[in-house]
Amino acid sequence: MHGYSRLGRPSTPSPPSSPRFRHGRSKNAIVGGSAVGGGFKGGGGGDVKLQNFVERLVYMVVAGVYRRRGVLLFAPLLYISGMLLYMGSLGFDMVVVSDRVSGKAAPLGSVYRSPQVFERLWPFMEAENNGSSSNALMHAWNPRLRQVWKPCLNHSFSEAGEKSNGFLIIEANGGLNQQRLSISDAVAVAGLLNATLVIPIFHLNSVWRDSSKFGDIFDEEFFIYALRNHVNVIKELPEDTLQRFNYNISSIVNLRVKAWSSPAYYLQKVLPKLEEMGAVRIAPFSNRLAHAVPSNIQGIRCLANFEALRFSEPIRILAAKMVDRMVRNSSKSGGKYVSVHLRFEEDMVAFSCCEYDGGEEEKREMDIARERSWRGKFRKRGRIIRPGAIRMDGKCPLTPLEVGMMLRGMGFDNTTSLYVAAGKIYKAEKYMAPLKKIFPRLETKDTLASPKELAPFQGHSSRLAALDYTVCLHSEVFVTTQGGNFPHFLMGHRRYLYGGHSKTINPDKRKLALLFDSPDIRWETFKRQLQEMLHHSDVKASELRKPSGSLYTHPMPDCMCKQADVRNEADLTQ
């Protein structure tokens, strides 16, 4: 459900670039089990004989040098030359791209061995079941590590002018949070241009296929009311304006604005057209405003995203019931629960080019999925895909099993209530079973709400995503596993609600690749590594926005003030 928008659609994304091996240009590189160039013999027997011969040769040369005192000064030079010859003859520049190449082991972290690791560690997990140890859910976040921030949108920022410069019409595309980004940026641009914003049009995306309109997902009346003092918003163009354009919005000039355009660009290029024509369109309107804008414009962005954009009443009512049910199901942990954004849908697995444990059947299914969604992009001439290198680089979607092992290693025991936000999981029956075994109190929207309750939302991916978003928003711990708009907006919203702390586990997937490729790892070592990862997420959860960063993910300091600053402002107003 969330998969497509988290792949950067609607513009067709390029496949992930394949990480290159350091010695990719070596003449002796081994590809698919065959040697390119001479000097390599299968089975490794030739290597052993050659190695022994070179060792004896180097020993004889060095010994001879030491017997002849006259050439003793050349000993270091001869020794180094011998070692270079030794290393070269053994082919240290050879690259092993598969654990099936010549019987050599693949690099650590390049192979999916999580089921073997789980088989070894499960007895230890079972021994710590049923609350026998302290559940990390009760002390996941250390309050000493952060300063407390509070929302403060009282700062002076742009107010709606008495006379509008014209009407701004934008088209929001993509999934729920791509739409959210477009809407909030459009409000900011309308404020910048002193334009009247028409309620955004939602593009019927060929991938999402969600026909929902603005009012189906967001509370239209509240949106207009919340922005009333800063940006004029109307539901539709006035009759006289429609008449001027023959009642055809397509007749209104569509300005092609480049991505991440600056405020200066809008003032110099868009504003004159707006004043001349009385109305302009910008479609598509995705990522069309730079991150770095004046503070008064940032303030409007904050207001739009964190306050004005609340979900429609049907979504809010069902989402509130789902949150309440999660809280009641979490009585053993004081109403606290963990939510996970799981990105293991078929399209995400296919796009990643990673290999799991499905063999030839999985490969065939992924080839079909890639061709169906990205026609030919993965078969371009010269493109080399190395699944092992992609896994080592931390780019592979975590399987449900890996998420379960990670959380157990961090200290979340089997009494933890777990909510999984996801689309249709690839081979769900196979891959979800281990996660349910590790966390029996697992829920999804399909188990938390009845078929009758979900019926009005079926076939509308953005509305279903809004349900997931709300349940994740109110969890004690949120876990992101693959990036994308959904976790980025959610982390920002959680920072806004929870004193500047996102309460989010953002794992180091490069380290996870190493841990999950270590079938002999000890339970204590596994736990120590993952608890350090949890601590690191705690430290990073209160990060401020960097100049190139988005306030939708990092609302401090643009949308929030430190608690001390809030108190000082209150004192000044008394």
From TrEMBL:
The keyword Cytoplasm does not apply. Belongs to the glycosyltransferase GT106 family. The chain crosses the membrane at residues 70-92. This is O-fucosyltransferase family protein. One of its GO terms (biological process) is fucose metabolic process. It comes from Rhododendron griersonianum. Residues 1-24 are annotated as: Disordered. GO terms for molecular function: glycosyltransferase activity. It comes from the Eukaryota. The lineage of its organism: Eukaryota, Viridiplantae, Streptophyta, Embryophyta, Tracheophyta. InterPro entries: FucosylTrfase_pln (IPR024709), GDP-Fuc_O-FucTrfase (IPR019378). Keywords: Carbohydrate metabolism, Fucose metabolism, Glycosyltransferase, Membrane, Transferase, Transmembrane, Transmembrane helix. Residues 1-11 have a biased composition (Low complexity).
